Amino acid sequence: MKRFLTLFIYIVLLLTVAQAASLTDKKTNSSDGITLFAVASLPQGMDEVYLGDSVIVTVTLYSNVNFEKINNKSTKLPSVKHTTVHRYRPGRRLSQDVVVYKGKRYYAVDAEQYALTPSKLGELTFPAQQYDVVLAVQVRSNDPFGSFFPFGRTQTQQVRKTCSSEPLRINVVKRPRKTILELQQSGATVM
Hints:
This protein is α+β, with helices and mostly antiparallel strands. The chain has two helices and eleven strands.
């Protein structure tokens, strides 16, 4: 029995030290230990858009704690010169995923998606988007064994934060001409 008790205390101490080490390793952007940021991006692998084609811009929010509520500060559509902008899938249900971004683990939510159709060649700038966010931060229990036994209810505290994405620059280029082989494969008559 004494051996079992000693082993149990040893495991508890190891887990406590490991948990403390993981908490001090997190990079934060505020004094309360919460990391929150927004990123506007094109679909993976896209770095330019053809004139007249539509492209989806996704604004993703990242945090090291759970999201409770997300609200876009701007109720109007973003204004982009020489570009038609529409909300893509408005009213959809937001889902939260755990992802790895630049080597770190975050909770992520695709907050907004916009369909952009440029009408002029050159560079266009999708403006920064600002969000009011309510996060669910777990409150530490005074019970020393509370984090090891998942039977009890965890308590959370709501924390309000704001974040903003950086403006996204998109290069609009002319569609390349088709080769003779591509025209023949599409069924067109080539003389």
